[in-house]
Write a structure and sequence with these properties.
Aspartate Aminotransferase, domain 1; Aspartate Aminotransferase, domain 2; alpha/beta
Length: about 500
Amino acid sequence: MQLIFEKSRKGRRAFRIPAVDVPVKAKLPSKYCRSNDALLAEVSELDLVRHFTNLSRLNFSVDTNFYPLGSCTMKYNPKFTEQIAGLEGFRELHPLFAQLDATVPYTQGALEVLFCAEQVLCEITGMTAFTTQPLAGAHGELTGAMIIAAYHRHKGNTPKYVIVPDSSHGTNPASAAIAGYEVMVIPTDKDGYMDMEAYKSKLGPESAAVMLTCPDTLGIFNPRIKEIADLAHKAGVLMYYDGANLNAVLGKVRPGDLGFDIVHLNLHKTFATPHGGGGPGAGPVGVTARLSEFLPVPRVIKKRDNTFALEYKFPHSIGPVAPFYGNFGVILKALAYIMLLGKTGLIEVSEIAVLNANYCLARLKDFYQVAYNKNRCMHECILSAVEQAKNGVRALDIAKYLIDKGFHPPTIYFPLIVKEALMIEPTETESKETLDSFIAVMIEIAKMSKTHPELVVNAPLCSPVKRLDETKAARELNLRWRPPLEKDG
């Protein structure tokens, strides 16, 4: 192929790739062919590296900036897990090998990883069996909702509803609805707990399950959780544990011991695997003994000769919910993280995460309104900017100002029941120095909201993209790239 060099319209050296004459039979239909030759700019390696390096600097990440997103739990991803996932025996294995020939040594190793991950997660959560197939937390929720439906069908029950609190993650009612259930919402009482009288009134043969996050999205551990579970079981209702906030109680309490029947875990939250950009994620689902027959297939089993295999013979299974066996690399990283820390390390993770969140709460509660519990929280603290809003500074403005100061904004406007919510979750890996810097900016914002609110409202001023019309951006999506036109200069 001959390259034709020429000057581009801006005077830079460029080259064209001319059309290549190919045999008639190999030609594509005209609608798939270029109408003009491709014009590609010629740049040095140095310019190319600088271009993509500078692009990467425009992104916030846990590796570069404090990322206090509440509920999403943006934990640091230790680099040793990447090295383990990159080992040749794992990296080079095609997932089909497990189906075609499970005796291949590499395949046996991979199946053992999945089996061990399931066993460890059972121990951590108090469940009897796990599936690693679900590809994200919401996917795990849907898998759990499908298991709930399969269980009730098998029992001959015909419930219509799934119970959720009004502080739940939005994926909870969405998963229940996709599984065919209507949703009954229970209000939050004045102390931030699920209203018990309203809850009791909804229990009965028409209720299939209760979906709860524990601790909840208000950063509160409900002291009546065992009573809630006992009441559900007495009414024939299953208990579903949204594991998004397990980081707060890791090694301290097991959902199974609290009375939960089904658990989904976010490995990309609690166990420090990559999170963001739409994936990869992992949302394994664990169940108690009476629900294990409904888990997705295939399931990894350990045979009498201590080898591992895939088993499909579970007639009441809901069937596969994902290609192959889940995001294997993510599961591998999570297992490595758990094995490195061990029991005492996981407990320390929980303790420091809760300590960091309470430190933020203690330092900021005099500057922002605190939702519900003013003196103590679990893994995240929920503040409200309602006082700042009286001067025209809303939670969104605070988030934008933080960007100018080099901090990713916390989650805002969630939970929905908290006006002008700011949900801050520092996790266990942030230093006191980082937290102090963040807290100082939050206090600065609170003071500026009284004296110079316009400085906050106009932020961000230092970012490549300034304040956007977010409503217009959501309604008028422009996702198509085009090269610059002559009139662009």
